UniProtKB/TrEMBL annotation:
Cross-referenced InterPro entries: Aldolase_TIM, Flavdoxin-like, Flavodoxin/NO_synth, Flavoprotein-like_sf, rSAM, rSAM_sf, tRNA_wybutosine-synthase
Record keywords: Iron, Iron-sulfur, Membrane, Metal-binding, S-adenosyl-L-methionine, Transmembrane, Transmembrane helix
Pfam families listed in its UniProt record: Flavodoxin_1, Radical_SAM
Record-given protein name: tRNA 4-demethylwyosine synthase (AdoMet-dependent)
Biased composition annotated in UniProt, kind: Basic and acidic residues: 300-315
Organism: Neovison vison (American mink)
Chain positions covered by the region annotation Disordered: 247-328
Enzyme Commission code(s) on record: 4.1.3.44
Pathway: tRNA modification; wybutosine-tRNA(Phe) biosynthesis
């Protein structure tokens, strides 16, 4: 065979091999174009099919079930809640129920006096019901008696950081309020607040709030009945839309809050029925939590200074300033007083306060108490949480009050007498307990016991030990047979050494080294570390029960275990919340009657009859030990019987 001929026949293959790179590129481009073409064709076919299928069929899956999108916007029923004083709101609720029934939807009408939001309100988050609230505003801007518990619970939940802004996310609601515009200062206040607090907790408003006006002259539609009919028509139309799974789209060109879809998300709607005052508009949530006061108090202080400048020139004295040449100013400023009062604090005099703990409320209703109930036998429904000093010497990074309480290294404010503070503390505490009479779930026995304070937790806010008359205050507590649990931030060693016996003395140990304490507590004292150590040494010298309360913050102070161990050795506390064990049994509880006997002996002896923690400890009941299920008090068990149940301390 001719070699030249063989070469000529192979040359195309050689050329192809030589240019194989271009061949690969061409194949890759061709495959890519084919894939893109197939995707375009399939998408076009899918769109064509969707246009040809009737809308009603789009809501059905291949198996005949309702699609996910349809389920998300469907309505399974309506719950109508009402709070009525004279029966008008109740009648409106019945009328609304009849109209909803005509749509073929299940409906339930609920009297708020029989409804427990603690147990059931969160259930509306996962349900597909729409909740309608028909609530009246009674004398003085208060809710009807039947709605007081729900109203108070909702207010506290909206201002409690532990619930958060998504607690009711998923719940759908609408509100119609009844009021009288003749009382302009609180016209429809209850309806507005219920609407606002539900929105604050993350619930979704399905229709703008309606406001009925008993004043015919000012009523938008001529009468409160006509106002309700107009709102009911809007509600039913919206309900029908939701039931069909339709949602009006926003064109995107409207201002927030002006179109139907976005208006439902606003805390305050711009409607002809909204009579919110101008003071509400800058702040969509005028109920200010203690945790959110920083910015507001700063603005208030700035405005106050601007107002005081011309007044100082004219020689006028502000009530929050000095009342005379030698008189000190009040600790509680007007802005702080207003904000704390909104949050449920009952302020006493110029520097003290009392508030109901959530565990007090829980135990009144036959539920569990706080950890001090398990550890030490504290009956939470008989515990008063108070403080004789709102001021503090630290500005801790984790302060839940955002550093809005006054700070200082010494007492520089005018001072109220301890007798007045204790008397008003007990009176205010009892007044708050009285508000729970008739609340769903409240046990009559515990309500009666709750009126008789047995324990006092001096840990509400601030630094109680700063109060110059703290020893006299403690003596008065013990004379009333009220136990004392006092918390200090370990910056006042002299005051700790001079402190009279308390039932249990707590020290907050927020860090274990000088650097971390400075970063975390941000103390005002320059010699803060030495004061901290001296305070722990002073604690070690105390003969009564002492406790270290550790505040551990991730990435701040959890890696200093050896340093914490050294601090424990320095202060030698009886507990780091739980420590005392005798033989094989825990003895963490307190014999409170025995403590009161020892205190009386101490006072009568002028301080010479000392006593120690072991003199009034009591065995921990089996149900309070780790791993056991709490069963409450056994009236047949004399070791844990509550004594002096009938003693009246209202005169203390």
């Amino acid at each position: 065979m001719d070699p030249a001929g063989a070469w000529d026949s192979a040359s195309p293959w050689v050329s192809l091999w030589t240019n194989r790179f271009y061949v690969y590129v061409g194949l890759a481009c061709g495959i890519s174009l084919w894939i893109c073409f197939q995707m375009v064709v399939r998408r076009r076919d899918k769109s064509s099919q969707e246009r040809s299928v009737p809308k009603a069929s789009q809501d059905l899956g291949t198996d005949g079930s309702i699609s996910l999108q349809r389920k998300e916007v469907s309505v399974s029923g309506v719950k109508i809640f009402y709070g009525s004083q004279t029966g008008t709101a109740k009648g409106f609720a019945a009328s609304l129920a009849e109209a909803v029934t005509s749509l073929g939807l299940p409906v339930a009408v609920v009297d708020l006096k029989d409804y427990d939001p603690d147990d059931h309100l969160v259930e509306e988050v996962t349900g597909k019901n729409v909740c309608a609230f028909v609530v009246a505003t009674y004398t003085g801007g208060r809710p009807p008696h039947s709605a007081q518990w729900f109203y108070r619970w909702l207010e506290e939940a909206a201002g409690d950081f532990r619930f958060g802004k998504t607690y009711l996310k998923g719940m759908r609601y609408a509100v119609f309020g009844l009021g009288n515009s003749a009382y302009a200062s609180h016209f429809n206040k209850v309806g507005k607040n219920v609407d606002k607090w539900l929105w604050t907790l993350g619930a979704h408003r399905v229709v703008a709030r309606g406001e009925g006006d008993c004043d015919v002259a000012n009523s938008t539609h001529g009468s409160i009945e006509a106002d309700f009919r107009a709102w009911k028509a809007r509600f039913l139309a919206r309900l029908h839309t939701l039931e069909k799974g339709e949602k009006k789209p926003c064109a995107g060109s409207c201002k927030r809050g002006q179109c139907e879809s976005s208006a439902e998300e606003e805390p305050f709607e711009s409607t002809s029925e909204d009579e919110s005052g101008a003071e509400d508009r800058p702040n969509p949530n005028p109920v200010v939590d203690v945790e959110d006061l920083g910015r507001i108090v700063s603005c208030a202080k700035r405005e106050k200074r601007e107002k005081e400048q011309p007044e100082e020139k004219s020689g006028l004295l502000r009530s929050s300033g000095k009342n005379g040449p030698g008189e000190r100013r009040a600790m509680i400023t007007p802005a702080l007083r207003e904000a704390l009062t909104r949050q449920g604090y009952q302020l006493i005099g110029s520097h003290s306060g009392v508030k109901l703990c959530r565990w007090t409320k829980s135990m009144l209703r036959g539920r569990g108490g706080c950890y001090k109930h398990t550890f030490y036998g504290i009956e939470s429904h008989r515990c008063m949480e108070t403080t004789p000093s709102l001021a503090c010497a630290n500005k801790c990074v984790f302060c839940w009050r955002h550093h809005t309480n006054p700070v200082g290294t010494e007492w520089r404010w005018k001072m109220d007498q301890p007798e007045v503070i204790l008397k008003e503390s007990i009176e205010n505490h009892q007044s708050m307990i009285k508000q729970f009479k008739g609340v769903p779930g409240v046990k009559e026995e515990r309500f009666e016991e709750g009126m008789m304070v047995k324990h006092c937790a001096l840990s509400l806010v601030g630094e109680p030990i700063m109060y110059p008359e703290i020893n006299r205050f403690l003596t008065l507590l013990h004379e009333c047979k009220i136990s004392s649990f006092l918390v200090t931030n370990a910056q006042f060693p002299v005051e700790i050494r001079n402190l009279k016996p308390v039932t249990q003395l707590y020290v907050s140990v927020d860090a274990s080294t000088k650097d971390s304490l400075k970063k975390i507590d941000r103390p005002l004292f320059k010699d803060f570390w030495q004061r901290f150590l001296d305070s722990l040494k002073a604690l070690a010298a105390k003969q009564q029960r002492t406790v270290y309360r550790l505040t551990l913050v991730k990435a701040w102070n959890v890696d200093e275990l050896q340093a914490y161990a050294e601090l424990v050795s320095l202060g030698n506390p009886d507990f780091i919340e739980v420590k005392f064990k005798v033989g094989s049994e825990w003895w963490t509880w307190i014999d409170y009657d025995r403590f009161q006997e020892l205190v009386r002996e101490y006072e009568h002896s002028g301080g010479s009859a000392t006593f120690g923690a072991q003199d009034y400890m009591a065995r921990t009941p089996p149900w309070a030990v780790f791993g056991a299920r709490e069963r409450g008090f056994d009236p047949k068990d004399t070791r844990y019987q509550r004594k002096n149940k009938s003693k009246d301390i209202s005169g203390c």
